[in-house]
Each structure stands twice: as structure tokens, then as C-alpha cells.
Amino acid sequence: MRRWNSEKAGIRFFELYAKGELSHRIYMDDRGFLSCVSDFYLGREMRRTYYSPNGNWCMREEMETGRVAVNPLCEFPFRQREYRNVAALIREVMADYFEKETENNVIIAACDNRHNELIYEVASGQKTVFSLFQKRNGMKEFDQSIFHMSDLIVTDTEYMADYVRTFPGAEGKNILDLSPYDVRVALGKSQRVKETKILCFLGCTQKKSRRHGSKSFLFM
Description:
By secondary structure, this protein is α+β, with helices and mostly antiparallel strands. It contains six helices and 14 strands. The protein has helices spanning 86-100, 116-122, 134-137, 146-149, 158-164, 189-192, and strands at residues 2-5, 11-18, 21-28, 34-41, 44-51, 57-62, 68-70, 82-83, 106-110, 127-132, 152-155, 175-177, 204-208, 215-219. The chain has an eight-stranded antiparallel beta sheet. The longest helix has 15 residues, at 86-100. It is globular.
């Protein structure tokens, strides 16, 4: 068995081997719950099974055909028992979500050509904001179709915003540069109280037990 950790030192996935060959890859989410199990045969990924936080499998994707089977006992109310691919299932879930939401919402999404068009279609009629991050999208490789799909484009630097404005279709578009910040920062009491505690090592004394003859150390 091999274990791979994420950048935050959490467990990303395990790999299980049978007779020296990779047999299963077990993915964990950021909370530590079982997320997905991939089955391998002769080095090829054959199947992915996705699980709910309760440990029940919800859907199973066949990698060769792309078809997705749904567990009828799954907690999530899927409309169908089978889908032609994962993209069709995601489209259905997103459409259901936006149908339940009220009007006048603003959809904020990271620019990615894998889902830009899908978001534009299912969120039709709602204001849409796409963000461009230089380390994620690069300076040349970004989906320029967002010009007609978005009401606002947000970039991480002023230089990136000026660069985006040079493309055809950017005329008259609302483009805003907004420097990113760490949203994980939570100001707790320890960050608001100006207090420092310094611990100094002064040495240790050795004590010998009369009964057992063993030695112990007392640190000060």
C-alpha cells in the first residue's frame, strides 16, 4: 500500500497493490471522508465508484464507455438510473440547482473551458462573473468566449486586466482587477491579544528509584 498526501498534509489517496500490480486507488476528500474508489486491471483504470459521506456508493462510472450507473438507494435524488457520461449528470444537477434558486442571483465562477459554456447555459438569465487568475489560466490560454457570457470579468492583477482588454470582444466589458487574499484567515483571540510567552529550558535533574533501581529525569 502507498499513501499520497495533499499540499495541506492531508491524505489525498491510497494505492493498493495485488501481486505487484496496482488494483485500487482510494481517494479521500478534504474532510477525511471516503470520496471515490478507482478499480484497475493490468495497469488500466476500469471503473470509478463515488461515495456519499454516509459511506453509500452513489454512482459508478465505467471508464471505457463513459457511462454512469446510479444507485437508486443513494441519498441524492437523481432523475435517471443511468447517464451517457459524467457531463450529462453534472448538467442535470446544476440545472436542478439553478431552477430552485430565486432570481437576481449572481453566479461567480473560475474561468475554465471545461465548464464555462455549461455554466452559461444552465444559469441563463442570471448575472455571471468569471475570474481569471494568471497562475491558473496563464497569459495566453484562457477561454475568450467569456466575453459574451459574462457580465463582469475579475482578474488578479492590473497587468492581467490590461492584457485581457486587448482581445477582440473585450470592448465595453466590465473588467476589474482584484488582488487575491487568503480567505482562510480567521482572526481569533490569539491574533488580537499582544502577548508573548517564552519558555526557557533550564536543565534537568536525575532521580533514581530506590525500589526499582530505575532512573528518571525531571525537566525544568
